[in-house]
Specification:
With 539 residues, this protein is mainly α. The protein is 70% helix and 0% strand. It is globular. It holds the Pfam family DUF1631.
Amino acid sequence: MQESNLNQLSPDAAALVGQCRDAAVACLPSAFAVTLGDALNGLIEARPWVGPDSAIELYEQAIGVLRHRRGDLEAAFRERYAALSDPAGDKAGQTATAPAQRPGLMDEDVHYDFAAPETLAQAIATACKGELYSLERRLDAITGTRGWRQSPVAPQLIGAASIEAMRQAGLVRAIRQSLLPLLAEYLPQQVKPVYQALNQFLLERQVLPELKLGLPAKGQAGTVAAVCQNWLMRQSLSQPTPSQGQTLAQVLAGWRHGDAEAARLLGLDAGALAAGMAILRRIEQAASLQLSAADRVALDWAAGWFEARVFTAAVPADWQVRIGRLQLVVLRAALQDAEGVLRQGAHPVRQLLDALIVLAGCEAAQTVAVKAEVATLIEGLQQREDNLAEGFRQALAALPGLDPAAAVDGASQFGDAATAEAMIRHALEGRRIPGAMESFLLMHGPELVRQTDATEAAQILADLIGSLEPAGWRQRREELAAALPGLLKRLQGLMAQANLASEVRGKFFGDLVKCHATLMRATRNKTAETKANPDSKVA
């Protein structure tokens, strides 16, 4: 496969890359700025001397930041949380490790390797999974190797993106002036002095409340995308790279057949496999089409733009599944078509794309009309007699009916795995539960909920998620504890009907019981304190 340089693109292709970049900058999710504050706060507070009284609050706050990170970091957090929930262990930990003055963020930690090629900015940004996960996959596809993470360039890239995000996210001036020079001076080496300086700064000024106030609810996350895209243009595509399509295809084939080594090469643990399927499909599509490196960048950014507009909106789950199956067909046609369809408002592909975006943001009263328009456009594409529509005909052959007036029957709503998966993702959206439980539901949940009708499946899923949320245990501890035996019995009956391996079922119930026990211990400490002091307030 011949690799291309952005400077060698045709005017149409270059315009497409630019349009995709601009759209991504404008539309990518804005979680980075908010998560940055949570990550800093979580890193500072996640220490063994916080004490059991704050354990449940810490868990609720930090699990959302840490549950998507690599397994060793999640394990470290779970160990720390277990210590927090055990008053005796916490007391011993204070005696053994804590100096006279309360240590802060960057005291020596056995779970962090200061010799690793990481930086402060990278450590913070890694917690912001939404931005970096697609960046890692994108770089892997372009360079053909995972070795870029060991390169000095990787920390610079992530550091630059983080710095720019902090500039644009509205961080208070004192923090910005103190942190940015340190980051600029020490990137990408000498990590420990940066951590120590940051730690000292935060401790002396007690800026955490101010930091949170300085982070708006809607941050300038698009800036991160812009920095990363500019770096890709300057660095990744400045020199030809060896072809990697065949290797990537082999890895994907192995992964699909359960090859653990292939999954390791892709950098995906069990919890990330399901979450990474859409990105893997995009990479596989690019490799199978023998696209140039520049075209793969365009494909990825355009898909990111599409997903940000569609999948962050309140589109019904069944339509999210259908739209998801169409997006690659739309993008493929746009990339391969010489007419420049994205710049032609009257072109059928452009009209369909616009209609799908409108569907993502329209009010409930408009949904039926827009669905009808989408269905009409798809039908029109099926009638075209040219190469552009061939991909649509092939993809639509496997789609369920797109009748906008068709009602979804509750008992058959989860007849296919894709719809069941969409339902589970919707149920998990915005909920904070342990990462192991979330991973299990994403990987095996569709097999479970399809064994029963929609109403019962939704109720069991809601009860299970509710039993794993720390916030619920603080407020409804006795009610949740009393309901656990019945919930476990219903889950056992449901799993008995599903074709799951016995070791999978055993591990799930083992993890579930441990999670419930941990939550009960932590809330018991808080409940006892509240009874002893009725005037105290539970944070």
